[in-house]
């Protein structure tokens, strides 16, 4: 049986910025809208950590 997405493609999709950045940004906005301060700052921190991890 043939795989739909090869393992390398899945790993690239999960570690590239195309998927995590919009998901984390939406999480931060949704948490802010729900007045969930801790979750909002956690999502913002995850975005900052993700952006800094590429420059190390």
Number of strands: 0
Distance between the termini: 40 Å
Shape: elongated
Query: What is the tally of helical segments?
Result: 3
Uncertain runs: none
Taken in chain order, the helices and strands follow as HHH
Largest sheet: none
SS-derived structural category: mainly alpha
Strand content: under 5%
Q: Kindly report the average pLDDT value.
A: 79
* Rg, Å, rounded: 14 Å
Q: Could you estimate the helical fraction of the residues in percent?
A: over 70%
Quick description:
With 56 residues, this protein is mostly helical. The protein has helices at 7-15, 20-33, 37-53.
What does the secondary structure layout of this molecule look like, with pairings?
Layout: H1 7-15, H2 20-33, H3 37-53
Structure description:
The protein has 56 residues and is mostly helical. The protein has a domain at 17-53. It contains 3 helices and no strands. Keywords: Membrane, Transmembrane, Transmembrane helix.
Question: Which key features would you list for this structure?
Answer:
transmembrane; elongated; 56 residues; mainly alpha; 3 helices; membrane
């Amino acid at each position: 049986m043939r795989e739909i997405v090869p393992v390398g493609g899945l790993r690239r999709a999960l570690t590239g910025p195309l998927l995590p950045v919009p998901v984390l940004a939406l999480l931060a906005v949704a948490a802010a809208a729900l007045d969930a301060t801790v979750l909002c700052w956690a999502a913002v921190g995850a975005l900052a950590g993700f952006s800094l991890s590429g420059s190390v």
